[in-house]
Amino acid sequence: MPAICNAMNQLITLSLEVGDLYSGFPAVTAHLWELNSSHPMKFLGGLPAAPEIPVLYHSWKLLYTALCQRLSYPPRLEVETAGVTHVSETDFDELCQRIVSQMNHWLKSPSFQTIDQQLRTHLHPTDEIRILIETQDYVLQRLPWHRWDFCEHYPHAEIALSASAYQRPIAHSAQPSMPRVTPKQIQVLAVLGNQADLNLQQDRVCLEQLSDQAAIEFLVEPQREQFYHRLWQGCDILFFAGHSASVSAPMISAELEASVAQVSPSTDAVEQGLIQLNDQVSLSLAELRNALKRAIAQGLKLAIFNSCDGLGLAHQLADLHIPQVIVMREPVPDAVAHEFLQYFLVAFADGQSLYRAVREARERLQSLEHQYPCATWLPMIYQNPAMPSIVWQNGSLLAESVVQHQGLEPPATPALKPIREPMGVQATLVPGANRPDVVIPGWRRSLPLLGQITLTTALVIGLRWFGVLQPLELQAFDHFMRQRPSERQDTRLLIVTIDEDDLQLPEQRQRQGSLSDVALTQLLKRLTASQPRAIGLDIFRDYPISPQNRELINQFRQDNVFAICQVSNLAENRVGVAAPPGIPLQRQGFSTILQDGDGILRRHLLGMEVNPSSPCTATYAFSIQLAMHYLKSQGITAQFTDEGNLQIGSVTFHRLRSHSGGYHNLDDWGYQILLHYRSHRSPLAIAPTVTLREVLAGKVQPDQIKDRIVLIGVTARSFQDYHSTPFSVGQEMFQAMPGVIVQAQMVSQIVSAVADGRPLLRSWPLTADAIWILGWSIIGGLIAGRWRSRPYLLLATSVTLAVLYVCCFGLFVMGYWVPLVPTLLALTLIGSNFVLQQHRNK
């Protein structure tokens, strides 16, 4: 129990800067300031890796935007479903609960409990608590932190985000050129931007209720210069309602233009905020930098953006050291924006602190969640920790008695983010060198049709080359993989699993790892007696065999017994695991698999160079060793072509390169190919499966084993040998695949391609991809030029997109991964361009 039971103002800063969700946060720091205390308490802890959280958030993001579209409520941003269909509110609610549960499970990790327990020791439920999360991680900034169990125990706690580096703004000596109406009256500059498809009049009504306490000036769909000059005069509160978005733009300075080709796209994008002032002008806050700096220096204390996806706006204002910003972290329905603004203004103007007013307004949004799911997830505060929070009292914005403090140094490499949401209604993104600008100049309208198509295609291909579209293209790959027709089981394989019940067998009393020598010996004897073509041990066993166990030694000498080993990796501090003693190098295969940045397994590593000092020196994968042994018994051999591709029989396994399909700037070390999963009702049912206890009990018939490739591996959850695949989302939501099933998928891919002619997945050359995108762009341009009526244009465009989808999916089934997302983007940009021109010409 805390020593002080009276309500107090408490400030907590939680630093999550070193690390990420895929590798964990080894050093988490929490500082606790009490009211009127200039020296904080400091607590140290850590958080483990949680790669499932980014996967969950990305699925949530796709379903949320799709649900917005399906429920037909107008957000303050145009949203796209990215190919997600058949969204049910029940599935979405389950996904929301899973995110909250996974986040709280992560925050209950033992390494973080030292911080959690210390904070609870010094806090009381009646305290007003502000928790600032310092992080650059994109997903962490988007998580529903208000659903943290900690906040449930402290009803006056509210969580905000903050930048990693911050300072107090420098006050301007000059007085604002526009005098205040009264000495204490608050000045509010309210900008009502592009009103297309929005009801901004309701925002105005909410603000005008404060006219007796503040001087409110409205700018309705202003021009760029008008907004700039008025902002230069200063204000206390800046309010914006309309369309907005957060996008990523290349950071290319004049000094770096000469070497832009060598710049990595993953480290050259910063999130920017865009707002639409009217139906023709959208601009980044970078274009208002000087005016914003002056306004902040003259006393701008709070900016409210009652519009969509405002994190980019908050980031830019944080760089200018604004005290507080309130934004919506995702696309927001118009009705939710109205309700939040009304509830917040009433609470804030009534004298509640900024944090309590936001929490109260957020909690009152729960009444809307039956119609607008996740409404309470949207509002958030972005705080400058070097500035005190504010309270509205007696017609003035006053600083609360919160001790000012210094923050940690910013990370060496800022977190960079890909493009997330498109701009709002009637806007087209045209990235520039240092900022995006969506205004389509007059000379563009005079270009011939082919010129516009060429420019659009070049833009899309450029975005694709620099990897901006890669996350969406990989999601399209996963979608197509899940939609492929079901195939028959591969009966050339038999999978022997070791589950939790198998670990408790009497033969397992002296086991080390997953199998005891007694159980392994009996298993191999029974399998060998039925004459399998090959036996693959997908288990690690690197300790010596007892000299008395001659039977196991003899089994390992069989020329059809193969074993797995693990190559050492200094970068990951992995020492490696040797193969079982007695199995020669030619019957060993490495276990290394390749996961993409989102944790999904889409690639198949066939071979690589290995450090001779590694305990495992196998240069070929376990899967190809088994497959080649099986194929050699049929007289099929392998060789390398003049182009350096592996050819087995008459089938060529085309190697992945740095730019292949949707991959761009891929680290193409080793010999990698795309992994073409086989799914029979479920990808887990790729081949007949039996358990260890069934084999030992003699319940498996010899004809189930004879001439087959038998894989032995662990499926017990306690061994945590599970991997995320394209089937881990969608219909097979969050289904992970055991390692032995992954190996079976890889073996089956090789054998089926060579023996059955099952297509391997490959991509077209870059030139063919470019021709494909250009061809569809021409079709889109011709459609847009042919049908001037908007209903006919929408119908023709919908039919074109449906045909494009069917073509891409059909080619995928045939084994070709062709660009879907870039082509969709090109068609959308061309169609939007024509609609904009028609709108302007009216």
How many helices? 22
| Beta-strand residue percentage | 15-25%
Average predicted local confidence, pLDDT: 83
> Over all CA atoms, what is the radius of gyration?
30 Å
Helix content class? 25-40%
Strand tally:
32
List the main descriptive attributes of the protein structure presented here.
alpha/beta, 842 residues
Topology:
Blueprint: E1 9-15, E2 25-34, E3 41-47, H1 52-71, H2 89-107, H3 110-122, E4 128-134, H4 138-142, H5 149-153, E5 157-162, E6 186-192, H6 201-208, E7 214-220, H7 224-232, E8 237-241, E9 244-250, E10 269-276, E11 282-284, H8 289-297, E12 302-306, H9 311-319, E13 324-328, H10 334-349, H11 354-364, E14 379-383, E15 390-393, E16 396-399, H12 442-445, H13 449-465, H14 470-483, E17 493-498, H15 517-529, E18 534-538, H16 550-556, E19 561-565, E20 588-590, E21 594-595, E22 601-607, H17 622-632, E23 638-640, E24 646-648, E25 651-653, E26 671-674, E27 689-691, H18 692-696, E28 709-714, E29 722-723, E30 737-738, H19 739-756, E31 762-763, H20 766-786, H21 790-814, E32 816-817, H22 821-841
Parallel strand pairs: 1-4, 4-5, 5-14, 6-7, 6-8, 8-12, 12-13, 17-27, 17-28, 18-19, 18-28, 19-20, 31-32
Antiparallel strand pairs: 1-2, 2-3, 9-10, 10-11, 13-14, 15-16, 21-22, 22-26, 23-24, 24-25, 29-30
